[in-house]
Design a protein that fits this description.
Number of domains: 3
Structural class: alpha/beta
Helix content: 40-55%
Low-confidence stretches: none
CATH class of the largest domain: Alpha Beta
Distance between the termini: 93 Å
Number of strands: 14
Radius of gyration: 25 Å
Largest sheet: 5 strands, parallel
């Protein structure tokens, strides 16, 4: 009986090549597994294609709700943004995919897991760290680090020589990764940072600001302990909240990001990310935190947010530090409940009001009208004490100038 390998299968060029390559070079029984985190129609027809290409079995694992609830929402609650721009769309999905691949491998008694990530990319790190953390006994096969093929042209030639249909549209050779949270684009003109992206050809989820409506769209989002639970008063599942906001955001040119980022492996790369619904949720969640978190927690959480983003980006989801940071973030969200209203207009998100029963905003304190909780005379003593180090420093400086 042949040994089995589980392949992370998308039906794209790389994984289409990998199935016959594995059979030729390892004599494995290849089990193709597609983890559906919201790729949409990209999963249509994959089983037939995988079997036709040489796989013995095909799995489609539906994970949209799990993806948003257990992977996206923790990242949202952490306010984690990589290098100030990237909402971690591809990064968040990788630990879930690794987890599902491991589950299938154990069920099938496979000896190895194979992925199609390149030797230059981040995903090889994310997949493999997840697999090592969850199933250290499994072998990992990364063809791009082994085979002689150096380009997409080499892959196309490989398939043509074997009479296998090439799954790539001519004239549209951007490298894309799609899930329910976002859509990423790399390649072609994006490889030159001096060139403006060809947005009319590039965008799939959104329109450009020039094509967005001339009238603003208002949206109200309700949160419970940091988790979004409704849009415009309608309770929805996590996946449906994102779908609804993706539509509203896309129509209003929200969440289009052009970034040159630092990859895990040490190089810089440029990509364009579409995250319409996610950008709205981040903005709404942040507005609610401004209302509900005390100064010290809010300040320290910004430090945690940056580290959280780094760990997610680098594939360090299943680590002790990440688990600890998640616990901290969860503790900060106990009072982050309420509603936030936003105005969407030509790529802009404009806060339009927020309310919460846990709001730390006190009108009696904040108002220009003197209230019972604040005595203006108290400020003099506070300023004297708060400014004492400055005063002492100035006196010493003046004394030594004589």
């Amino acid at each position: 009986m042949k040994e089995k390998v589980v392949l992370a299968y998308s039906g794209g060029l790389d994984t289409t090549v990998i199935i016959p390559w594995l059979k030729e070079n390892y004599d494995y029984e290849v089990i193709a597994a597609c983890v559906d985190v919201g790729q949409g129609m990209e999963t249509d027809g994959l089983e037939e294609k995988a079997i036709k290409t040489g796989a013995s079995k095909y799995y489609l694992v539906e994970c949209e709700e799990e993806f948003i609830k257990d992977y996206v929402y923790p990242t949202l609650k952490a306010d984690a943004v990589y290098e100030g721009k990237y909402l971690l769309g591809t990064s968040i999905a990788r630990p879930l995919i690794a987890k599902k691949l491991v589950e299938i491998a154990k069920k099938e008694g496979a000896v190895a897991i194979c992925h199609g990530a390149t030797g230059k990319g981040n995903d090889q790190v994310r997949f493999e760290l997840g697999i090592k953390a969850l199933a250290p006994e499994l072998k990992i096969i990364a063809p791009w680090r082994i085979w002689d093929m150096q380009s997409r042209e080499d892959e196309v030639k490989y398939l043509e020589e074997r009479g296998i249909e090439v799954p790539m549209k001519k004239g549209d050779t951007y490298s894309r990764d799609r899930n329910l949270w976002h859509l990423s684009h790399e390649g072609l003109e994006l490889e030159d940072p001096a060139l403006e992206p060809n947005y009319d050809k590039l965008l799939h989820l959104s329109v450009t600001p020039e094509k967005a409506p001339d009238k603003p769209t208002y949206v109200e989002i309700e949160f419970e302990k940091g988790n979004p639970i409704s849009v415009n008063g309608e309770k929805m599942s996590p996946a449906n909240i994102v779908k609804t906001l993706n539509k509203l955001g896309g129509q209003n040119a929200i969440g289009i990001v052009d970034i040159v980022e630092n990859r895990v492996v040490g190089m810089k790369s440029r990509g364009v990310y579409e995250t319409p619904g996610g950008t709205i949720l981040y903005a709404a969640h942040k507005e609610l935190e401004y209302l509900c978190l005390d100064k010290q927690t809010q300040s320290f959480k910004s430090i945690v947010s940056n580290k959280f983003a780094e760990l997610v980006y680098s594939g360090e989801w299943f680590t002790p530090l990440f688990e600890a940071l998640c616990s901290f973030v969860e503790s900060t969200q106990k009072t982050v409940s309420g509603t936030v209203k936003l105005k969407l207009y030509k790529g802009n998100i404009i806060p339009s009001g927020a309310k919460s029963k846990y709001s730390l905003y006190n009108e009696s304190l904040a108002s220009f009208t003197t209230g019972e909780l604040y005595n203006h005379k108290d400020a003099e003593g506070f300023i004297n004490l708060f400014g004492l180090p400055l005063k002492v420093n100035a006196l010493v400086k003046k004394m030594n100038e004589k």
